[in-house]
Amino acid sequence: MANAKLEPSVLLTVSGPDKPGVTSALMAVLAECEVDLLDVEQVVINDHLTLGVLVACDRPVDELAAAVTETMTPHGMDVSAARKDDAVGHAPSTHAVVILGSPVSAAAFGAVAGALAAQDGNIDSIRGIADYPLTGLELMVSVAPGPKADAALRASLGGVAADYPIDVAVERGGLARRAKRVIVFDVDSTLIQGEVIEMLAAEAGREEEVAAVTEAAMRGELDFAESLHQRVRALEGLDAEVIDRVAERIELTPGARTTIRTLNRLGYHCGVVSGGFRQVIEPLAEDLELDFVRANTLEVVDGKLTGRVTGEVVDREGKARALAAFAAERGVPMSQTVAVGDGANDIDMLAAAGLGIAFNAKPALREVADASVNYPYLDAVLYMLGVTRNEVEAADAVDGTLRRVPLDPAPEQ
């Protein structure tokens, strides 16, 4: 912060039980001492307050500390003071690092801190952002500017995530992190559990055959369009009413409804881009109040599935085009878009987005994604966008949707 009275300066630290009136009392005594504020930070952990105030002050440190201590002691607060030569308010952090785990062990956090130190990175602040369904911590950090430092930070923290049962996401700090406005989700195994094409194939008694093709396509071993046509042929002759039966059996991924509801509150334009089928997805999109839907269309003739799709196939390239079209429709630059998916056919879409998140994804997608979630809770995406669980639940409490369901034991990573 630019300030004509940067020197001399004093850092005051006040700590003790959090209760009303503490900050007010501190500011009152500082006003009497005629100091200028340079920086203020406050943290509350389990009802214990730590408040740091950097001030410009001409009087001796001992004199200032004595005045503050006299005022704050009746509030049960401890006070320390230290002269800070050439002190200034801190510059904005270069990156946000989000750690997710169930739980986050001290060993895992220590490894993250060690990796940051090895990159000459400084942790500017730490806050808890979630206690359900995962533990979430957000670190605002600063490293040397430049693409090499950025890549080294991501690689280093990615190595920690591979060694411990945690997810670590790295995003650039600043305004860009909070400027995202369009988000699109893949559907099968991302927004919903399972693969619709396999559920349809089960009606024809060919689920295992189709599942094998799906797996190969998601790993990137088969061209998606070719694999789609191959799988859809297995549906030839089924009554069209099977579509409705399958749609009724769809189960959302845990946290999906909370995620979409919260993003809608925040003013995001939310949509789905799927290699699946519009006839199944559109009722779901309407229920979730999504803004966009792009998916394939099963051909139906005389009430029967023909084993073909009609129109342009939504494949790997088609997904990226759909994201770009959605963003253009809403006048949002691609840097302000987010894409979430799980398979190789999502690679182009995640690469094109301002932030690409791999959700319980195949290795081919994790390699190109900006961030990965390896826990089965879609609301973890919110934490990577800087939204806290307290903010989500405060909004849910207002409209009567707040609830926490019991969780199954955390899966092994």
UniProtKB/TrEMBL annotation:
Q: Which InterPro entries match?
A: ACT-like_dom_sf, HAD-like_SerB, HAD-like_sf, HAD_sf, PSP, PSP_ACT
Which stretches make up the Phosphoserine phosphatase ACT domain?
93-171
Amino-acid biosynthesis among keywords: yes
Please list the GO biological process terms of this entry: L-serine biosynthetic process
Which metal ions or organic cofactors does this protein require, according to UniProt? Mg(2+)
UniProt keyword annotations, A-Z = Amino-acid biosynthesis, Hydrolase, Magnesium, Metal-binding, Serine biosynthesis
Question: What GO CC annotations are associated with the protein?
Answer: cytoplasm
Q: What is its EC number?
A: 3.1.3.3
Active-site residue numbers: 186 (nucleophile), 188 (proton donor)
- Return one GO MF term: L-phosphoserine phosphatase activity
Its UniProt pathway annotation is: Amino-acid biosynthesis; L-serine biosynthesis; L-serine from 3-phospho-D-glycerate: step 3/3
Reactions that this protein is recorded to catalyse = O-phospho-D-serine + H2O = D-serine + phosphate; O-phospho-L-serine + H2O = L-serine + phosphate
**Keyword Disulfide bond in annotation:** no
Similarity comment: Belongs to the HAD-like hydrolase superfamily. SerB family.
Q: What is this protein called?
A: phosphoserine phosphatase
Q: Which organism is it from?
A: Gordonia hirsuta DSM 44140 = NBRC 16056
